[in-house]
Amino acid sequence: EADSDSAHCRQKAKTIEAFFSSTSREHHAAEDKNVFPALLASDNAELVQAVRTLQQDHGWIEQNWLELAPMLRAIAQGEDWVDMAEMRNAIEVFLALMHDHIVLEETLIYPEAKSRLAQEMASRAARMVP
Fold this sequence. Notes:
130 residues, elongated
């Protein structure tokens, strides 16, 4: 049973590491390229500050991830050098960063970006009508 628990933990660590090393990073890169520039051009100071906070978050999240990812990879590969107390601390920091980041995205940034996109599409549609 210990082997199956161990195999389960290794697989979980591999899945988590793969997600945050690829999908999550790609998401942040897409935000930086496609979402943030238009919002930074806004005359709404609160919105601009929120976007700058999210950009700063991306840096902090990446820095924390660079510490956490090797530990998860080691666990996924069955290595035993990981200091579990250090990893728990890194995970707590990472989760707090991600939580605050997601809350700001969901409550302010994405509603604003969606509203702007809808306005742009309506404007384009209105120009197409003779």
